[in-house]
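Ticket opened by: R.M.
Priority: normal
Category: complex prediction / small molecule

The reporter submitted a protein together with S-adenosylmethionine and asked that the result be attached to this ticket for the collaborator who will pick it up next week. Submitted input follows.
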Amino acid sequence: MDNVGGVMNNVKLSERLRLVLEQVPPGSRLADIGSDHALLPIAAIETGRAVSAVAGEVNPGPYEAARKGVAEAGLSAKIAVRRGDGLEVLAPGEADCITIAGMGGALIAAILDRGQSLGLLEGVKTLALQPNVGEDILRRWLVKNGWVLTNEQILQEDGKIYEILTVVREDAAAGITNEQVYGDLAVGGALVLSKEMLLEMGPWLLRTPNQAFLDKWQGEITKLEGILKSLSRSELASAEAKRTQISEQIRTITEVLECLPKDKR
Ligand code: SAM
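Result attached by the on-call engineer:
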């Protein structure tokens, strides 16, 4: 039942969603928030990753697409498609695994925060999250709220780079603590990365950097260099401080990339 790469209803899951699905513990009671066509919950049921699922959607178009997808897959008995904001489509204790993919990290954090304040994260053991941007914002929320990163992945697909963060609660992290995950990390035998850098770049991604990771941060440097160039034309007093800050960011990222283990590239 581990066939998460298989073809389901003639729909091949993207590599991005396939990796998110892999993070769902087999036999889960899944909630996929912002489900759009409900591809993920359909695949989760078809592969046995989930025994039941809720597909949540706030917008009418994607909600209809999800209903249609689930009906066409013949899975209406196992997947409840519900319209609503974030975790509010759930009853307390209904799900033990939540996936949220394809949104910004700040929005995912806001959805989790509101869900938590409504008691809707109770009974949830695993979160598999795929922020498109703002990964650092999400990591900060997770640390602050007692979730421990057990896995972090980064991939490149169709010219875009995606990160997938999997977390469990601190007391279920098999002895892994946030102090360890975000403790000072030595790279290249010389450079010690602070908690701040680990939150920015990803503590597990930094430990096992792949090509997508290097491409992401090389792209970040290029972006920052572009900003620096446009700032150099500015005569505003504030531009000088901004230039110093960005030059420092470029220097730090470059130094990290240079120190990462070469054999992992
Ligand atoms: N999860 C799918 C994926 O990764 O392919 C779809 C991603 S799509 C880019 C983001 C979806 O999230 C949209 O369909 C949007 O309507 C939905 N969405 C945005 N904010 C939401 C919220 N607060 N609650 C539920 N769904 C939301």
